[in-house]
Structure formats: C-alpha cells, structure tokens
Amino acid sequence: TSQLKHANEELRTKDKQKDEFLDTIAHELKTPITGIRAASELLMDEDEDMPTDIRQTFLENIVSDSDRLSRLINDILDFEKLSTGRQQLNIKKRNIQRTFKKAIGNLQHLAANKEIKILNNNSFNFELPYDEDRILQVLTNLISNSIKFCEQKKGVITLDYKLGNNCVEIYVKDNGKGIPEEDIKYIFDKFYQSKNQNTIKPEGSGLGLAISKQIIEKHNGKIWIEKGTKVGSTFGFKLPFS
C-alpha cells in the first residue's frame, strides 16, 4: 500500500540522516584530536633546543583543541537530549533585560578582541516565563554567530525586543557579511556552517542554531532569520507570555 511505501521511505530518509549525522560527528571529532596528537608528538620528540615561545604555542594549541572537543561533545549531548525530549525546562518568571545584560557580559571579551560593539537597543524591563539558562544559550549562540560574521573594528551587533501578539519578539541584528540567500533554508540544520564566516576555519560545533531552534520550540515559540536584509543578518525569536 501507499502508506507502507511512505513509511519505508521515511525510515530510509531517517537512516540516511543518521548516517550523515554520525559521519559528520566522526569528522568533527577527528579534527581537534588530530591537532592534539600532532602537537603532543612534537613536544615528546623535541630536543632541548626548542624555543620557549614555540613550545608555548604547541601547548596553547593543545588547550584550544581540547576546549573545542569538550564544546563539541557537550553540544552533541545537548542536541540529543533536546531532540529526544529528555531535557526538562526550568521555566520561571524572568526579567528579559537582565538576561540581555548577562548575554552581552558573557561575550564582551570575544567582541572586544575584534573591536566589535554589542548594543542593547531597549532598556525597558519586562518579565515573562522562560528557562533563563536556555534562553541565555540561544542569545549566546546568536551573538557569537554575529561576531563570526562581523568585520574587525567595523562590527555592530544590536539586541532589541518588542511586544507582539501575546508574546515577546527578540531580535539580534548585525552589520556583518550576512548569510547567503541559498543557505537560509539550511540555517537551522545540524552542522550547518556558512562559508561567509570571518574566521579561517569554522568555529563551534555547527549545532548552535539547531540547538537554539529546539530550545525555542520547547518554549512553544518560533525562531527565524529575516529574509531580504540588505546589510548583515537579523535573527528573531518569539517567546509566548504563557
């Protein structure tokens, strides 16, 4: 029957997605592990003549690759818990303004490294129910994404919100390179990485936006990217009042 055929096709698609997911994880894990191994072997084989600054660089690379590995594993576990519904939200009435300030504070050093400004466009205090740690995670993902796309010294990232129909609409806007039109439909997919990032190699796990989408949907909200933006990109998400 057509129902059985459709069910089989769905299973095949899910199987293919699972294989692709595992392939990508294997590749993503291999990259930092290779870096750690290479730097460790060089340090093991080094003679007394290795300059201190070169040894220091190798040690810093090991720490940086270990951090990347740790973030990747945490993101994979997070994604898996959210997608299987094993992650419970801790929803309480929170002040959105305080959450904004925490998110900006957490990323100020990263923005300062590139001399990028992060501005809060709305200083009005407003309370509504949400899981603060999780919404902080979404804001952190969106702001750090903007930092990647912004040019050094010229970048400006703006946080804003407005009251919508029985919800609050929150926006993170930047004047960076923007996201190519053809990428927009894949932006919230697992392991999405844009070629427009202002970094030599893509940073992060590529799961940030997929995790953000799941968090917002668990709040019965919605997340999107504005289309047709002439400069940079604007992400928005809605949180309902109840």
Summarize the structure.
The protein folds into 2 domains: 2-83, Helix Hairpins (Orthogonal Bundle), CATH 1.10.287.130; 92-240, Histidine kinase-like ATPase, C-terminal domain (Heat Shock Protein 90), CATH 3.30.565.10. It is 51% helix and 17% strand.
What general outline do the C-alpha atoms trace? globular
**Secondary-structure class:** alpha+beta
The name of the CATH architecture of the largest domain is 2-Layer Sandwich
Mean pLDDT: 86
Cα end-to-end separation: 43 Å
Tell me the series of helices and strands, N- to C-terminal: HHEHEEHEEHEE
Task: Give the SSE layout.
Elements: H1 2-45, H2 52-83, E1 92-95, H3 96-113, E2 117-120, E3 127-130, H4 132-149, E4 156-163, E5 167-174, H5 208-218, E6 222-225, E7 233-240
What do these coordinates show?
By secondary structure, the chain is α+β, with helices and mostly antiparallel strands. It folds into 2 domains: 2-83, Helix Hairpins (Orthogonal Bundle); 92-240, Histidine kinase-like ATPase, C-terminal domain (Heat Shock Protein 90), CATH 3.30.565. The chain is built from 5 helices and 7 strands, in the order ααβαββαββαββ. The strands form 2 sheets. Strands 2-4-5-7-6 form a 5-stranded mixed beta sheet. Strands 1-3 form a two-stranded antiparallel sheet. α3 (96-113) runs parallel beside α4 (132-149). The longest helix has 44 residues, at 2-45. The radius of gyration is 21 Å and the shape is globular. The chain starts with a helix and ends with a strand. Mean pLDDT is 86; it is low at 198-202.
